[in-house]
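Design job #97: recover the sequence.
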């Protein structure tokens, strides 16, 4: 029997190679690409299916613009605090000389916490910081401090921000830890040989190298917070007007139902989160090139 030429062998093996990624491609097509295309087209159509810009103009009404502004503020705030706290924790477990088991435990917890959202997370915060929550009762009975008497409210801008930080900080830890591990020891030794202090090393060597990763993760955390809906719905219901809740009301609500306006709101969310993810990908690629 004649052996196949190398070109023929590669040609025959190609379908098998593509067969392995076919489930992912099919999943992406059915649950990401086609729904996104449907939303984008629906944002520019009316009930009769005709082209219109009225849905896009509807985005600029005060209520919807206010919802976008609240969502952007929450996303920026949680991304900023998430990046800062996550960076400090990651630096402590990677460069601070802490025991190795602590690093493993922290990364394991971060992997779980970064995916802990929705109704379970909302319930956990209500049970902890609600009006009859564990921490609320402890502070009042043991220390005489009334959280809600001092103006705090879990079902508010501040309460939702604190809840989002629960998964924003661990996500930052998971992403920035490999970047911190990529800092070469030779760079620190060279800086110390030239007389640089620890502060100067971080300011002039480490942070410029980590800056693309830091900014890229900030963009990713912004997108992660901006698109979160289940946690906000379970925690605040309709008491806080953020974009995902307004979107849900337009598509599934009994009173405010306007699917095509909902498509326009979703289109606006896609644009904002898409820009944030593009920024993350570009800066992440740049950061990896720096480390190499």
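Job complete. Output follows.
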């Amino acid at each position: 029997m004649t052996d196949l030429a190398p070109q023929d062998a590669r040609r025959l093996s190609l379908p098998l190679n593509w067969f392995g990624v076919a489930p992912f491609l099919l999943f992406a097509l059915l649950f990401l690409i086609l729904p996104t295309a449907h939303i984008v087209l629906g944002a520019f159509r009316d009930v009769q299916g005709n082209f219109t810009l009225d849905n896009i103009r509807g985005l600029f009404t005060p209520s919807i613009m206010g919802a976008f502004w609240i969502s952007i503020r929450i996303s920026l705030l949680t991304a900023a605090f998430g990046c800062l706290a996550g960076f400090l924790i990651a630096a402590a477990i990677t460069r601070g000389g802490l025991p190795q088991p602590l690093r493993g435990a922290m990364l394991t917890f971060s992997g779980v916490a970064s995916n802990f959202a929705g109704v379970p997370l909302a319930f956990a915060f209500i049970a902890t910081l609600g009006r009859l929550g564990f921490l609320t009762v402890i502070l009042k009975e043991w220390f005489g401090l009334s959280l809600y008497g001092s103006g705090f409210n879990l079902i508010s801008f501040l309460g939702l921000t604190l809840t989002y930080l629960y998964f924003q900080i661990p996500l930052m830890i998971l992403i920035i830890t490999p970047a911190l591990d990529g800092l070469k020891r030779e760079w620190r030794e060279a800086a110390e040989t030239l007389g640089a202090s620890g502060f100067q090393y971080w300011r002039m060597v480490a942070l410029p190298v980590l800056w693309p990763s830091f900014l890229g993760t900030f963009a990713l955390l912004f997108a992660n917070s901006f698109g979160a809906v289940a946690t906000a719905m379970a925690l605040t219901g309709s008491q806080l007007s953020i974009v995902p809740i307004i979107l849900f009301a337009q598509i599934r609500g009994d009173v405010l139902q306007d699917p095509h306006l909902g498509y326009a709101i979703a289109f606006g969310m896609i644009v904002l989160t898409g820009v944030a993810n593009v920024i993350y990908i570009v800066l992440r690629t740049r950061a990896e090139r720096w480390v190499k």
